[in-house]
Specification:
Length: 429
C-alpha cells in the first residue's frame, strides 16, 4: 500500500521531544526549545542601530538601553514563555509581546539581566497587547546593562521583521560574497568540474570526503523562491546551526548539507513551512556520500525524490531517496508506458464520468483510499458531508464494481491511481 509520509502539520524545533506553542499576534508563534552555538567569526551581523534604520521598523521607538544600540545582531527569535531566560543565545535579538511577563515585573527584569550576561543583542516588545508600558525596574535594568529595548510597531507581523532584518544581515556583510562564491562553486560541482570545485570548497571548510547530502527544495503548488524566501531559509538553517550551501537551480533551490539525521532536517523544513505561509515545501534528499564522489548521482536522487513527492501528492515534508527508491526503479521499467495505459484503462469509467459530468470521483477515490477508507477523515479532507461521500462511493462502486470492498483490489486501485498520476505529472511537465 502506498502511504503518505508527510502530514499537514506545523511542528516546532524540539529538544528532548519538548516544545511550547502560543497563538499570538495573528501567527502561530513557535517557541524553539533548543540550544545553538553559532560559529560567529565576526560576520553575518548588523548593529541594533542599523536595524532600526530599516523601513519595516520605521514606527519603532527606543524604550530603554540606548547606550547599547551598537550591540550586534546575528539572529532573530520569538520568545513567549515564562522561562525565556533558558533559551537566550548570544547575538540574538528577541521579539516578544511580553505575554509571559504581563503579571511578572521581576521576571522581565531578570530576563534583561540574563540577556546581558549572555551577550544578547536586545529585545523588541510590542506594547499595547499585554503590557502597555515598561515597568521602571525593567527600564533601570536595561539602562544599567546597556541592553536595548525597542518598542515595535504593533501592526507589523513578526515574520516580516525577521525576513527584512535577516535579508539585511545577509546582504550587508562580507559573508554575502563568500556565500555567493560558495554557491558558484557548488553549481560548478553540480555541472561536472568536480576536481576543481572540491578543491575550492576545501578553502571554505568543506573537505573532500566530508559526508554530505544534496537536497532539492521545491513546492507542491509551484512558486519561484524570491530573495525574501531565500533570506528566510538561510535564517532558519543558520538558526538551527546547520552547515549548508544554497544554489538556485531553475525553479528550485539546491542545497548541499553536511550529513545529519533526517529528523533534524524535517524539523527545519517544517519550521520554514510554518513561516512561508501558503507555500507548501518539499525537500527531496539524496543518500549521504563523501563529498567529491557521485555528485551527479546524488543530485539525481534528490531530483527524483522531489519529483515523485509531487506525483504522490505530498504537500509538505522531507523525502529521502531511500523511501522512494523502489518506485524510482519501477518508473525506469521499459514497459512503463504499457503499465500507465493499463492503469488509466482500469480507472477509465470514473475518469470518463468526471470528464462528462463534472464530478470528482477520481479525487474522492484517491483521498478515500489514502485515508485508510476512513469516511470521517476522507470527508473532512474533501470538505464534503459524509452523506455526500457515501453517495460518491456508491457511484464509484457502481462504475468499478465491488473493488472498494476487497483489500487486495484496494492495493491494485492505489497502484493504478499512482501510475495514472505519473502520467498526469509527465503531461504537465
Amino acid at each position: 500500500m502506498i502511504t503518505k509520509i508527510a502530514d499537514k502539520i506545523i511542528l516546532c524545533l524540539k529538544k528532548q521531544s519538548m516544545c511550547q506553542k502560543h497563538k499570538l499576534d495573528g501567527h502561530v508563534v513557535v517557541q524553539k526549545a533548543y540550544n545553538v552555538h553559532p560559529n560567529l567569526g565576526g560576520q553575518n551581523m548588523i548593529s541594533v542601530n542599523e536595524m532600526l534604520k530599516l523601513p519595516v521598523l520605521s514606527g519603532s521607538s527606543i524604550l530603554a538601553g540606548q547606550s547599547g544600540l551598537n550591540r550586534k545582531i546575528k539572529y532573530l527569535d520569538i520568545l513567549e514563555v515564562p522561562d525565556a531566560e533558558n533559551w537566550l543565545v548570544s547575538y540574538e535579538f528577541i521579539l516578544t509581546t511580553a505575554f509571559a511577563f504581563k503579571d511578572n515585573e521581576d521576571g522581565l527584569s531578570k530576563l534583561v539581566e540574563v540577556g546581558a550576561k549572555r551577550n544578547l543583542a536586545g529585545f523588541g516588545i510590542k506594547l499595547g497587547r499585554f503590557i502597555n508600558s515598561l515597568p521602571a525596574s525593567v527600564i533601570e535594568a536595561a539602562n544599567r546593562y546597556s541592553m536595548p529595548i525597542i518598542g515595535l510597531p504593533i501592526n507589523v507581523p513578526y515574520i516580516q521583521i525577521i525576513k527584512d532584518v535577516m535579508f539585511e544581515i545577509i546582504k550587508s556583510e562580507e559573508s554575502l560574497k563568500r556565500s555567493l562564491a560558495k554557491s558558484d562553486v557548488f553549481i560548478q560541482l553540480l555541472e561536472g568540474d568536480v576536481q576543481t570545485a572540491v578543491e575550492e570548497l576545501g578553502s571554505y571548510g568543506w573537505e573532500r570526503g566530508t559526508p554530505v547530502r544534496i537536497g532539492v527544495l521545491t513546492s507542491s503548488v509551484g512558486f519561484n523562491f524570491n530573495n525574501d524566501d531565500i533570506a528566510l531559509l538561510r535564517h532558519v538553517l543558520l538558526r538551527a546551526d546547520l552547515e549548508f550551501i544554497l544554489a538556485p537551480r531553475h525553479e528550485d533551490l539546491v542545497i548541499l548539507l553536511r550529513d545529519l539525521p533526517v529528523e533534524t532536517i524535517k524539523e527545519v523544513v517544517e519550521i520554514l513551512k510554518g513561516q512561508l505561509k501558503g507555500k507548501d515545501l518539499l525537500l527531496g534528499l539524496s543518500e549521504p556520500r563523501p563529498l567529491g564522489k557521485c555528485i551527479k548521482h546524488s543530485l539525481n536522487e534528490a531530483q527524483v525524490a522531489s519529483q515523485l513527492s509531487k506525483v504522490l501528492g505530498y504537500k509538505i515534508g522531507v523525502i529521502p531517496f531511500s523511501q522512494i527508491k523502489m518506485l524510482s526503479i519501477i518508473l525506469e521499467h521499459p514497459q512503463l508506458g504499457e503499465i500507465i495505459s493499463t492503469a488509466s484503462h482500469m480507472l477509465s469509467p470514473i475518469l470518463d464520468h468526471d470528464a462528462n459530468q463534472g464530478t470528482e470521483l477520481f479525487k474522492t477515490l484517491k483521498v478515500f483510499l489514502e485515508s485508510g477508507k476512513n469516511q470521517q477523515i476522507a470527508s473532512s479532507l474533501l470538505q464534503i458531508h459524509r452523506n455526500t461521500l457515501r453517495y460518491r462511493l456508491g457511484q464509484i462502486e457502481e462504475l468499478l464494481g465491488d473493488q472498494l470492498l476487497d483489500s487486495k483490489s484496494n492495493f491494485i486501485l492505489q497502484l493504478a491511481i499512482f501510475f495514472h498520476s505519473v502520467y498526469q505529472h509527465k503531461a504537465d511537465v
